[in-house]
Design goal:
Layout lengths: L3 H4 L1 H37 L7 E2 L5 E2 L5
Length: 66
């Protein structure tokens, strides 16, 4: 005699959908985490930006570096 879960089509479909959603969530979470780690690594490797402020006469005024 067959297993009762195996005989019910809607239960098998529900389990397949739930398993697919779980797998997709895990893969997307892993990819997101990896992308964030790569973005943080790139941020740390880049030199800091320098800001130039121009006044009305279009001459640049720079703040002293600390």
């Amino acid at each position: 005699m067959a297993n009762p879960i195996a005989r019910k089509l809607y239960v098998r479909i529900w389990l397949a959908v739930a398993g697919s959603v779980l797998l997709l969530s895990l893969v997307l979470g892993w990819a997101w985490h990896r992308a964030e780690r790569e973005r943080e690594r790139m941020r740390l490797l880049q030199p800091p930006r320098e800001v130039v402020v121009r006044n009305e006469g279009a001459s640049a005024s720079a703040a002293p570096r600390r």
